[in-house]
């Protein structure tokens, strides 16, 4: 879906590349804080991944809009 939205394969890869580090970071913080992995933790991680994906989409949209305003050719 993201490839169709941006008419490119690079931008969706940019967005999706941030998701594994968010999940691993959340699991690492759970471990370091001494909490166990529960259903509530799973729901929190899913929500975190959704927020990270939304922010990635917004950053790519902002960058493409700014490049279009400057007259640059989008990648």
> What structural class should be given to the helix and strand makeup?
mainly alpha
Question: β content, as a range?
Answer: under 5%
Count every helix, treating DSSP H or I runs of 4 or more residues as helices.
Answer: 4
Task: Give the CA-CA distance, first to last residue.
Answer: 18 Å
Low-confidence stretches: none
Give the overall shape.
Answer: elongated
What's the alpha carbon Rg, rounded to whole Å?
Answer: 16 Å
Q: What is the typical, i.e. mean, pLDDT?
A: 87
Most strands sheet:
none
Say how many strands there are.
0
Query: What is the string of helix and strand elements?
Result: HHHH
Please bin the fraction of helical residues: over 70%
Description:
By secondary structure, the chain is an all-alpha fold. It has helices spanning 2-6, 10-16, 19-33, 39-70. Helix 2 runs antiparallel to helix 4 (39-70) and helix 3 (19-33) runs antiparallel to helix 4 (39-70). The longest helix has 32 residues, at 39-70. The radius of gyration is 16 Å and the shape is elongated. The two termini are 18 Å apart.
């Amino acid at each position: 879906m993201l490839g169709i939205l941006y008419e490119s394969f690079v931008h969706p890869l940019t967005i999706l590349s941030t998701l594994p580090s968010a999940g691993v970071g959340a699991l690492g913080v759970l471990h370091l804080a001494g909490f166990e992995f529960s259903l509530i933790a799973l729901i929190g991680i899913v929500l975190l991944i959704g927020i990270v994906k939304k922010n990635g989409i917004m950053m790519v949209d902002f960058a493409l809009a700014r490049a279009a305003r400057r007259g640059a050719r989008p990648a």
